[in-house]
Amino acid sequence: MVNTSIKTTKSQEIFGAAQNLMPGGVSSPVRAFKSVGGQPIVFDRVNGAYIWDVDGNKYIDYVGTWGPAICGHAHPEVISALHTALEKGTSFGAPCALENVLAEMVIDAVPSVEMVRFVNSGTEACMAVLRLMRAFTNREKIIKFEGCYHGHADMFLVKAGSGVATLGLPDSPGVPKSATASTLTAPFNDLEAVKALFEQNPQEIAGVILEPVVGNAGFITPDAGFLEGLRELTQEHGALLVFDEVMTGFRIAYGGAQAKFGVTPDLTTMGKVIGGGLPVGAYGGRREIMSMIAPAGPVYQAGTLSGNPLAMTAGIKTLELLSKPGTYEYLEKITQKLADGLLKIAKDTGHAACGGHISAMFGMFFTAGPVNNYEDAKKSDTAKFGRFHRGMLEHGIYLAPSQFEAGFTSLAHTEEDIEQTLAAAKAVLSSL
Ligand SMILES: *Cc1c(COP(=O)(O)O)cnc(C)c1O
């Protein structure tokens, strides 16, 4: 690792070996630190708001395994419930009562969800919801937004070249043009662009899918009226509105963005928090639509490990902890302190910056902003972000290793953790 003051001998050794064993040395790309430079640290264990790496360094964590750890890593109640569940076996491949419990919790919490299907990841949930959108409407085209991530399925891997919003060009080799030909894209927060797509493709658009608050292009909030506008447009054109709440679900409010903003989509995808750190995804929505899923209806979707008792247990316990009074007030309080503090320090130290937070999700771009969509986000000084990221790491703060990822806080983060983080940011930003 270059220019580092922390001891990283073991991290280097393990990651070095990993590069011969797995592509890029990782099981998921962003973990490799490509966009911030330097080598990743290799984790040994996590607890509460903290990570320990294999060299014994401790960090305050703002990634939270990309969202699931909203109650803090290895929460004792989650671990204890998992121990009990483990004694009964790891997977049934058959109905289990725990599925009912988590299903009821999700249905009670998320306004759009009347029925739910559990899967194993957010990617799976989004793939399945796309098939369902098409089956229900008997239309093929969908609209997604530039910079929004809906997992790695072929149909979603589209970043429209500027101005070519209607030509779905695949982002990755191996994605056939035919897979993305029906994926139309528009800039986030641009209702006029969506309206134009509906007019250019009459009776052809199955629906609109979006991250209601974007986290996968950095943190970008919806403009006032944007979500409401999409709700109206989709209704007007007989299309479905789908909120991908894999990140925002149970994070920006217990009922997700739809509860926060009071806009109810037809279908919702979930993941991350509802698995409490185990592999879970889910999709749900109006009963009439969900009843089309096999075996109730003809739309096929299945999973060997789906609804497995360990994942259900971690999800149930996590939601129980989150539904206690005061949790979201606490998350809001500490995250506001962090996000406001970071922005103020950046400005005070002479850096162009903008950012914000909603509940336990935050972000800061190195550009004066405002950032309303992916084009704006790309104006950010990513080289500076790379140096900021490395500096924070050396000060014991673990941020997502990309400018284009949101940050996450948890119930385990204390005011002192936030103060320590801001002190580190002050030291690092003053030196950039
Ligand atoms: C993480 C994420 C996904 C993909 O979920 P995986 O569990 O990583 O497959 C999909 N949509 C959004 C909004 C996400 O943040």
From TrEMBL:
Annotated GO MF terms: glutamate-1-semialdehyde 2,1-aminomutase activity; pyridoxal phosphate binding; transaminase activity
Keyword Isomerase: yes
Biological process (GO), any one: protoporphyrinogen IX biosynthetic process
Localization per record: Cytoplasm
Pfam families per record: Aminotran_3
Residues bearing the modification N6-(pyridoxal phosphate)lysine: 272
Pathway this chain belongs to: Porphyrin-containing compound metabolism; protoporphyrin-IX biosynthesis; 5-aminolevulinate from L-glutamyl-tRNA(Glu): step 2/2
One cellular component term from this protein's GO annotations in UniProt: cytoplasm
Top EC class for this record: isomerase
Source domain of life: Bacteria
Family according to the record: Belongs to the class-III pyridoxal-phosphate-dependent aminotransferase family. HemL subfamily.
Assembly information from the UniProt record: Homodimer.
Protein name, as recorded: Glutamate-1-semialdehyde 2,1-aminomutase
The species this protein was found in: Cuspidothrix issatschenkoi CHARLIE-1
